[in-house]
Amino acid sequence: MSEDHDDGTAWIRRFHPSDEATTRLFCFPHAGGSASFFFPTSRALAPGTDVVAVQYPGRQDRRNEPNVASMAEMADRAARALLPRTDLPYALFGHSMGATLAYEVARRLQEAGRPPLALWVSGRRAPHRVVDDGLHRLSDDELVADISALDGTGTQIFGDAELLDIVLPTLRSDYRAAETYEYVPGPALDCPVHALTGFSDPRVAVRELHHWSEHTRRSFDLRVFSGGHFYLVDNHEDVVEVIAEALRVG
């Protein structure tokens, strides 16, 4: 716990802060990802929505901190950091591993009396459907091959041994957190849940996304885009518009 700044700022990245913002969106990256993944989202939604991208330990400017290989611990620490930022109406967006983490943080903030406006979950099985695919037990070469197949990390790292030495332990730790996650039943969320996915995602079948409907007392909808696991990169404008539209209605 000592690794966190007292006010939780270690977890917070605001690329386009604005006093005009009327809503806030907490964004949770995928396994091996970092807050900067959501820079384009922040730019697109500013100034009306203040995008807070969550920076996990062990990467970029937090690379000297130990990785967190427990989803429960990650959610506890992230929720503590984000709670003071719930002074505006807020929603959460998480992609892949980040979807599970966003859900768990939403549960904690709801329990603290600050329920979100909405939760977006992207490219991830519902919490009670998570399975251990054994990715965190792959060899380094197999892990690199898996990343390459998803096309989710810049291919330039594959020829840079020094960079790989930095990236792979973090990715493996994130995979361990995602694959050893254990869902604990509890109250459903009191906000709409919006699921998004790519039609050709090799990680999760489209039909799996429907199970997220079991985790809300409010409405549920599913949007399917062209593309694979990182469909949201090629469909960025459409994804942002889906979020912006819901925040306007909300």
UniProtKB/TrEMBL annotation:
Biological processes, Gene Ontology terms: lipid biosynthetic process
Question: What's the short name of a Pfam family annotated to this entry?
Answer: Thioesterase
The entry's keywords: Hydrolase
Q: Could you name the domain of life of the organism this protein comes from?
A: Bacteria
Q: What Gene Ontology molecular function terms does this protein carry?
A: hydrolase activity
The Thioesterase TesA-like domain extends over 26-247
Q: Which SUPFAM superfamilies match?
A: alpha/beta-Hydrolases
Its family remark reads: Belongs to the thioesterase family.
Name it.
Answer: Alpha/beta fold hydrolase
